[in-house]
Amino acid sequence: MIMTVTSMLDNVLRIATRQSPLALWQAHYVKDKLMASHPGLVVELVPMVTRGDVILDTPLAKVGGKGLFV
């Protein structure tokens, strides 16, 4: 199936983002660029919390170090 921009406009594009200031800035930047280049596109930001966001009292290396922010 080939999707065209027209058929994509009927849907909502959701972008998952961490809630850190940098992640939110990046997500808003991408959202703004997408909406500017695709008028009518609905883009929603979906906040998420990762394991790395929750574990604040232990060095990340001791928790596993990799895959904590996915």
Automatic annotation (TrEMBL):
Where the record annotates domain Porphobilinogen deaminase N-terminal, the positions are 13-70
Give the matching InterPro entries: HemC (IPR000860), Porphobilin_deaminase_N (IPR022417)
- Broadest EC class assigned to this enzyme: transferase
Superkingdom of the organism of origin? Bacteria
Catalyzed reaction equations: 4 porphobilinogen + H2O = hydroxymethylbilane + 4 NH4(+)
Give a Gene Ontology cellular component term annotated to this protein. Answer: cytoplasm
Instruction: Tell me which stretches of the chain form a coiled coil.
Output: none
Pathway-wise, it operates in: Porphyrin-containing compound metabolism; protoporphyrin-IX biosynthesis; coproporphyrinogen-III from 5-aminolevulinate: step 2/4
Pfam families attached to this UniProt entry: Porphobil_deam (PF01379)
Question: What role is this protein assigned?
Answer: Tetrapolymerization of the monopyrrole PBG into the hydroxymethylbilane pre-uroporphyrinogen in several discrete steps.
The name this protein goes by in its record? Porphobilinogen deaminase
The record lists the organism as: Escherichia coli
Classification of source organism? Bacteria, Pseudomonadati, Pseudomonadota, Gammaproteobacteria, Enterobacterales
